Amino acid sequence: MMRSRCGFTVNAIFVTHWHADHFLGIFGLVQTMSFNGRTEPLTIYGPDGIHEFTGILKTVARFNLKFPLESVELAAGSWVRFDGYTVTAFAVSHGMPALGYVLEEDPRPGRFNREEAIALGVPPGPLFGRLQRGETIRLGAGESAREIRPEQVMGSARPGRKIVYTGDTRAIHDRIRDIARDADLLIHDATYDESEAERGAEFYHATARQAGEAATVLNARTLVLIHTSSRYPDAQAHISDAKSAFAGPVLAPDDRDMVEIPYRD
Ligand SMILES: [Zn+2]
Ligand SMILES: [Zn+2]
């Protein structure tokens, strides 16, 4: 986070499961936040075990912690509202309580049809803004008075973007079909390539090909392979395995790579 210069203005952390590679960094992060004089509360969300974890975090941080640290336990189907988006948890298969997360933006209002508004006799100006904010307006007076409703000049709502993050898991796409469908970005466990496919099931991880199958079944737009095992010198085999099952773009990003997620329209 320091190298990416994104700052530490994080207000919520979502933990997927209690393997050290997925939570140890929080100790240093919280210590740094405290050292930087943070006073805003921080909430850590996670599966069964989250309250014990946060208790340990507070004990270890001792007198250094200068801001409120809260914990919230989530289960499959739990959701948390934020300003403009919702995070929903789903169960994955990792041999312990483990969650994946869907981040879904609220739908955006439909497009304002300026030509239609003018054709209906609405003069360009403040009345346009009122219609765009969902207000019904009145034109004229007396006998000729009439109403223009926002739905006459606004298109239908447009979907926001959707990110699905599986965390560590075996292949689970059939059981997350409903919650994870149509993801703009599917970030999927791809620990193994096909040469070690049998290890995936045994160690509760997915192969890159299974991640590709998930992207196809879930109608994802872009697939991101993560958690590739350090035994592989690079992710080339993973990418071609995933592409054998998914026709869309496949990425295997490094730390701090940026991925732009355009709106569907
Ligand atoms: Zn794990
Ligand atoms: Zn892991």
Instruction: Please give the order of strands in the largest beta sheet.
Output: 4-5-6-9-10-11-12
Class by SSE composition: alpha/beta
| Uncertain residue segments | none
Number of domains: 3
CATH topology of the largest domain: Metallo-beta-lactamase, Chain A
Named at the architecture level, the CATH assignment of the largest domain is 4-Layer Sandwich
CATH C-level class of the largest domain: Alpha Beta
What is the average per-residue confidence, as pLDDT, rounded to a whole number? 93
Which distinct ligands sit in these coordinates? Answer: zinc ion
Report the CATH superfamily of the largest domain: Ribonuclease Z/Hydroxyacylglutathione hydrolase-like
Strand content: 15-25%
Total number of strands = 12
Number of helices: 8
Helix content: 10-25%
Q: Termini, distance in Å?
A: 31 Å
Q: Largest sheet, if any?
A: 7 strands, mixed
Describe the structure.
It is a single chain. Helix 7 (208-217) packs parallel to helix 8 (236-243). The strands form three sheets. The chain has a seven-stranded mixed β-sheet with strand order 4-5-6-9-10-11-12, covered by helices on one side. Helix 8 (236-243) links the parallel strand 11 and strand 12 (250-251). The protein is globular, with a radius of gyration of 24 Å. It has helices at 25-35, 50-61, 114-119, 126-132, 177-180, 197-202, 208-217, 236-243, and strands at 12-14, 42-46, 69-73, 79-82, 85-91, 99-105, 137-139, 146-148, 162-165, 185-189, 222-226, 250-251. It has three domains: 1-73; 75-108 and 158-265, Metallo-beta-lactamase, Chain A, CATH 3.60.15.10; 114-152, no CATH class. The protein has eight helices and twelve strands. The protein is α/β, with parallel strands linked by helices and 265 residues long.
